[in-house]
Amino acid sequence: MLKRIFDLYREAFGGLSKPAWMLSLVMLINRSGTMVVPFLSVYLTDSLGFSVNQAGIILSCFGIGSMIGAVVGGSMTDKYGHFMVQTISLIGGGILFILLSSVSEFYLLLTGILLLSIVSESLRPANASSVAGYAKPENVARAFSLNRMAINLGFSVGPALGGILAALSYRWLFIADGTTCIMAGLFFFFYFRNMKGNPERDKHRGKKIGYGVVFKNRRFMAFIALVSIFAILFFQLFMTLPLYYRQVYDLPESKIGILLALNGIVVFSLEMVMVYILNRKYRIHELLFPGMLLMGLSFVMLNLFHGHLILFLSMIILSFAEILLMPFMATFTVQQSDEHNRGAYMGLYTIAFSAGFVLSPFLGAQVISHWGFEVLWWATGIISVVLGIGVLYVTNPVKNLSISS
Question: What is the end-to-end Cα distance of the chain in Å, rounded?
Answer without folding.
Answer: 53
